[in-house]
Amino acid sequence: MSREYSHKNLLLTSTTRAFGSVQRYIQGPGELKNVFAYGRKYGDRFLFIVDSGVIDMIRRQVEVIEDRAGCTCVFHSFFGECCQENVDLLAKVARESGCNVVLGVGGGKVLDTVKLTADAVDLPRIIVPTSASSDAPAADWAAVYDINGVHLGGVPTTRCTELVLVDSTIIARAPARLFAAGIADALVTWYEAEANERAFTPNYIGKGYARSLAGMAIAKECHDVLIRDGKIAYEAVKSKLLTPAVENIIEANILLSGLGFMNTGCAGAHGIHNGISEIEEGKQFLHGEKVAFGLLGEMVLENAPREKLYEVMAFLDDLDLPITMEQFNIACSDENLEIIVDHVVYKNALIHREPTMISPELVRDAIVAANEFGHRYLSEKKG
Ligand SMILES: [Zn+2]
Questions:
Q1: Same domain for 54 and 201?
Q2: How far is the CA of 283 from the centre of ligand 1 (A)?
Q3: Both 137 and 188 in a single domain?
Q4: Which residues lie at CB < 5 A from ion ligand 1?
């Protein structure tokens, strides 16, 4: 096992705790119309960098805003990966536009790219998610890829996002599958927080510190809200309805999960996710969907009680999330397991944040056991 990826090398060296956060978070129905009123304090020339899939919808909504608080704006369409090439390109666009505020609108990839772009040009940034599919929006962190979509790792951003503006009407109308994936990504936050706490590994604030009570409380609240309101909110979003439960889950998926993981740390569930992403078929699935299965592997690894494991499987299955590898069209074969385990154990640090001794054999058996539990659950449900 390489030294870089070992539990020993990840251990905290002090008990100093730290908490970090975006500067402001605003969430509510129709809030996009207030983007200039809220953003005015950061500048008056806005560069909207918008996901190509939603740019027409966003442009229509922004163009009819009458009171612009004296602000002007320009639009730029984004497509592709959060990679250095796109950051360089957008930094050039930002400089040439003469804008003094950078806005990212869309899903995780555009938002992460805009975070790094704002860092590169040293301008305030506003983040406007159009779905609640992951915890990217409220995390001062970016998942970086190469131009071909190969995941290179996560990096903390230098500045803290000035404003995360969530228009819950837009989120409730996004595909329900994205919402469910966001719930899965948010659900693992508490399990991974506990793993890191027990393993005495650092959070993602600055150079990495021990967890504050605030960080742990946010992760726990995230879990509790999801268990209480997750299923009912998912049903509402399937009909594109914005209910109080949906508002709660939007906050859990975006704010509680984003602050939760930054302030506590990721662990085995995300580690196994990264391994599954190494298989071609796995690349077709959403981040949260792979993290959902990863959580089952993490729970087996941590020897979670059977009832708890079944509870989590039932919750995920009710949200139409995958609980077996075959639901990703990935066979649980020796060949696939070798690729997954090799990545999880030797090419990524996350599994080593687990409070247990890690070996390739253990990780392999935990994944196979999780897969078998998933199959058993599904056949018992049918039976
Ligand atoms: Zn995640």
A1: no
A2: 15
A3: no
A4: 185
Separation in Å, CA 208 to CA 85, 170, 187, 309, 325: 28, 34, 22, 30, 33
Q: Do residues 245 and 174 lie in contact, with contact meaning Cβ atoms separated by under 8 Å?
A: no
CATH number at residue 41: 3.40.50.1970
**Residue 29: partners with Cβ closer than 8 Å, 6 or more residues away:** 167, 168, 169, 242
323 CB-contact burial (10 Å; exposed 0-12 / middle 13-18 / buried 19+): buried
Regarding whether 192 and 167 lie in a shared domain, the answer is no
Question: Residue 80: what pLDDT?
Answer: 93
The pLDDT value recorded for residue 317 is 98
Q: Does residue 11 fall inside a structural domain?
A: no
From 158, 173, 188, the end of a domain falls on 173
User: Per the residue annotation, which of 7, 273, 343, 352 is the catalytic one?
Assistant: 273
* CA-based torsion, 375, 377, 382, 383: positive or negative: positive
Residues of the chain with pLDDT under 50: 1, 3
* Per-residue model confidence (pLDDT) at position 4: 63
Rounded CA-CA distance 302/271 in Å is 14
What pLDDT shows up at residue 151? 82
pTM of the model: 0.96
The active-site residue out of 7, 270, 343, 352 is: 270
Residue 185 catalytic? yes
Distance from Cα 89 to the centre of ligand 1, integer Å: 26
Has 273 been annotated as catalytic?
yes
Q: Which of 223, 287, 343, 352 is catalytic?
A: 287
pLDDT for the residue numbered 1? 47
375 annotated active-site: no
Question: Using an 8 Å Cβ cutoff, are 142 and 285 in contact?
Answer: no
343 is catalytic: no
Distance between CA atoms of 74 and 59, rounded to whole angstroms? Answer: 10
Cα separations (Å) of 110 from 79, 204, 259, 331? Answer: 8, 21, 19, 32
Check if the beta carbon of residue 58 is closer than 8 Å to that of residue 84: no
